[in-house]
Predict the structure.
Amino acid sequence: MNVLFSDTFVKSFKKLSSIKKAVKKKVDMIIEDPIALGEPLKGNFRGYYSCSVRKNFIIIYLHCSMCRKKGDDKIVTCNECNKFPDDTIKFIALGPHNNAYGIK
Ligand SMILES: [Zn+2]
């Protein structure tokens, strides 16, 4: 699995020191099984997946094999998607439920 972290994700991760451990654990779980754990987002965030951490926080990520499945790669803002292999996961954003969507 090819795993990438966006700058936004890394910044949020550094700020949220209180839940670092929980986030790390979740990230490992997502890497193992990105499809089972992710909840597909809709609308503007079509193609993205979310996974909650301790109910109040969410991780937003992309899984490139899914980006491509439904032609979502044309909608999803997965930068340079075609440069990466199918089994690429990109962690895009992390934050409290209401705020994490400020990714666009
Ligand atoms: Zn992609």
Summary: The beta strands are 2-5, 39-40, 49-53, 57-63, 88-96. The chain has a mean pLDDT of 87. The chain has one domain: 2-87. The radius of gyration is 13 Å.
